[in-house]
Amino acid sequence: MNKFFNSLYKNHNFIYKIFLFLLTTFLIVYLFPKSGSFRYSFEKGKPWQSENLYAPFDFAIQKSEKEIELEKELIVLESAVFFDLDTTIKKQVLVNHRSKFDEIFNLLKNDSTKTKLFDRNLKILNSLYSNGILPYDYNFNSKQIIKILINNTQVKSVTYNDFFPQSKLNKFIDSTLLSTEYKSYIPNIKSIFFEIITPNITYNEKLTKSAIQDRINQISLVRGRVEKGTLIISKGEVVKGDKLSILKSLESEYESQVWSETSYIWIITAYTILVALALLMLLLFLRKYRFEIYLNNTKITFIFFNIVLMVLLTTLVINFNPSYVYVVPLCILPLVLKAFFDARLGLFTHVITVLLLGFVVSNNYEYMFLQIIAGIVTILTVSELYKRANLFISVGQITLIYILSYFSFYIIYEGNIDGLKWENFLLFVLCGLATLFVQPMIYAYEKLFGLVSDVSLLELTDTNSPLLKELSEKSPGTFHHSLNVANLVESCANEIGANSMLVRVGALYHDVGKMNNPTYFTENQSTGTNPHDELSPSESAKIIIDHVINGIEIAKKYNLPDRVIDFIRTHHGTSKVRYFYNKQKELNLDFDISEFKYKGPKPFSKETAILMMCDSVEAASKSLKNPTSVKINNFVDSIISSQIEMNQFLNSNITFKEIESIKKVLKHKLANIYHLRIEYPE
Question: What gap in Å lies between CA 85 and CA 416, rounded to an integer?
């Protein structure tokens, strides 16, 4: 049992990678659409590239969305409109008319005229109420069919023009009575009518909409069927018109039939295999070309997390509205990975992610082309992300590439720009604006995963930071030495293509451990007294060696990133404190050589190796007397050769060619420092 647990412990890194691999594969497959995939690809207006296609089964020809919308509009135009008729209103109006008429015309002496006038009013009222009076004009078409309801029972059908809007009452009375012998009584009649007339017809909006919706629900979504074995399209035939509709119907039916209970397991298995292959390629890439990252489970988790995040965002947008798929800022992925790792890894991961998203989007070739091109542009254009202007410029370039690519694809598909929806370009602008969110994302990732970006490194180069300020106050000589080393390492890193920002930060902080005992280091001894004179060589060596351990403790206290602390750990490797070692040898006493050796580890990257070389050269250069070009050349060669002989660079991926380039830079820099000039003949 113990053997089993020991085996688990020894292989826990590998087991974690397997778990992470399986979990990521599961999450991505889970997010994929639950539908089959049509085996043929086709484009509107393009020739059919595959062999003659026959119907594999019976299927219905589905109507397009445009056709369905036209049918809906036609139903709305042709459907009857319902109005409610209140029969009690007319009776009450007639009663009110009798009393009001008697009140106004009681002084009229001529009974015959009075009777005729009363009958005339009744005729007008009956005419107005024959179909009904509207409270106001509803703006329906004059020929719109109207169904009149009494107590929710249909009694008759009329047209909207048969109704009388109350607003036209004044005009109607004038036109009716103006040419008769009763025109002198018009003001009195108007006063009666305006007071007693009440609308008796009201629009039944609820019932009208319900009736229209019932008819819309009965719309057939298909228009005909295609029998099994029927030739759908021949090779070379242009995909357009009915052929396009039939192909889209076949695609839709195929996808729904393929994803059935019987094939569910098979399709899930196929998806899993493809996703697993893609992720496996990424792991193999890391293992072969980025082994340091491969060994770090946190970094692998970070990469896989970002892949799943992009797949999740894309599927959510597609489920909401597939036309908004280009709003997803997929270029954030290579930006983030480039900020923390390198451009090559960022591009490779971006391509893998785009390949996975090809399963999700409908126009997969167009989508994949646009996203891969945009990713390449992102990698090529974005440099020094910590500079805000660079990010804005790059986002502008990415947006332009999106727009140009989309425009070109549309021209290829349609042959013109007549139907181009210019508002789609707004999606790419929104995508560009969303890409700017990469800065706060980088900050969040630094805190969440303990990573460090160039933005954080730039902040650490500030000499007014609390730690560097304390170093300059307690150990001014060490601080000056660190600044000199920082300038040297930056030039060397630029020469061989290493991370100059990272190595500069490492150089600034590599000797912070000397603050605990500053006077025991020669660069801080301003009084001329040396405290080592009072100590044995072994005691002196311990103080010197302990500045590495002290530096690590101080760095952790100030929350410096692990990548920076690595420089403190490795800047002396496993070398000897040579001065005190030789002094101990002169005493001819038995001693343990390990007491005079730094505990390591040895440098394990180009950057840490550069710091070791530059630190040793800069510190030792203070002892040069009357330096010349020859002396400086021999001096640099001897120091670095000694480090090579002690196998200090064995674990770092630095080449002899790069070491020679570093030597050349150091020789040039030291020559400038000491202002070497040509010796003129006497």
Answer: 56
Answer whether 381's CB lies under 8 Å from 397's CB: yes
Report how far residue 334's alpha carbon sits from residue 341's, in angstroms, rounded to the nearest whole number.
10
The reported pLDDT for the residue numbered 525 is 81
CB 104 within 8 A of CB 192: yes
Tokens of 174: 């004038």
Burial of 97 (0-12, 13-18, 19+ CB in 10 A): buried
- Are the C-beta atoms of 190 and 170 separated by less than 8 Å? yes
What is the β-pairing status of strands 81-85 and 53-54? unpaired
- Please identify which residue in the block is written with the tokens 């280009």: 326
* Alpha helix positions (H), 130-260: 169-177, 186-196, 205-217, 241-258
What residues form DSSP beta bridges with 59?
226
Q: At 501, list the tokens.
A: 């920002």
**C-alpha dihedral over 412, 417, 423, 427, to 10 degrees?**
20
**Would you say 431 and 399 are in contact if contact means Cβ atoms under 8 Å apart?**
yes
Q: Over the stretch 539-581, which tens digit does the pLDDT of each residue have?
A: 898 999 999 999 999 999 998 988 899 999 999 999 988 888 8
The CATH classification number of 454-673 equals 1.10.3210
- Integer Cα distance of 682 and 673 in angstroms: 25
pTM value is 0.64
Which amino acid, 312?
A: L
Q: Considering the chain, what is the average pLDDT of its residues?
A: 83
Rounded Cα gap, residues 596 and 577, in angstroms:
5
CA-based nearest residue to 53, from 244, 274, 214, 193: 244
Q: How many CA atoms lie within 13 A of 61 on its CB side?
A: 15
Sequence spans of domains, the chain = 2-34+262-421, 75-215, 454-673
Spatial CB neighbours of 451, under 8 Å, sequence gap ≥ 6: 298, 299, 302, 340, 445, 561
List the one residue out of 383, 294, 310 whose CA is nearest residue 345.
Answer: 294
State which H helix or E strand residue 59 sits in. strand 59-62
